[in-house]
Write a structure and sequence with these properties.
This protein is mainly β. It is built from 1 helix and 13 strands. The strands form 4 sheets. Strands 1, 2, 7, 8, 9, 10 and 13 form a 7-stranded antiparallel beta sheet that branches. The longest helix is centred in the middle third of the chain and has 5 residues.
């Protein structure tokens, strides 16, 4: 039985983000919706649970294999909002569209998805009213009816 060989860590290329400020969310169905982002948690990638491969031929360890497909995880936005446009906000819930995150350097990350929820937070004196917004990526182009993963457009130097 062969053991895995260690691999040396290489020096990363590119430019790491130095500050979490700023990320903006654009909904293609309403690009000027009255939401003011305060915190953005971009989506992640999830490969799912491992598939057990153990058989009676294993001697010491259970063995596993990765799944074939990747899930683009849902993401969240904390935002201030204009209560005068709650109707416009409600019209975005469950509407398939392109959702774009624009990072501080101008890079964009776009995916197909929908606003899953808009939840106003508790309001209290001395604090700005906020809402928690959850975006569910679909990886499905509703116009062309095909699978379509996220698209990253980097700017020069990133």
């Amino acid at each position: 039985m062969a053991a895995p060989s260690p691999t040396a860590r290489g020096v990363p290329t590119g430019i790491k983000m130095k500050d979490g400020y700023r990320a903006l969310i654009t909904l293609s169905n309403n690009t000027t919706i009255q939401l003011w982002e305060k915190q953005v948690q971009p989506p992640g990638f999830d490969g799912g649970d491992a598939i057990e491969q153990t058989t009676m031929h294993n001697d010491d360890y259970r063995t596993f294999a990765p799944r074939s497909l990747i899930t683009l995880t849902e993401f969240s936005v904390t935002a201030a909002y204009d209560p005068g446009v709650l109707t416009a906000i409600s019209q975005q819930v469950n509407r398939e569209q392109t959702i774009t995150i624009t990072f501080t350097d101008g890079s964009t990350w776009a995916c197909f998805g929908f606003m899953k929820s808009f939840t106003p937070q508790q309001m209290s004196e001395g604090e700005q009213p906020e809402a928690e917004i959850t975006i569910q990526p679909t990886n499905w182009d509703p116009t062309n009816r095909v699978e379509a993963g996220p698209a990253l457009a980097s700017v020069t130097g990133t």
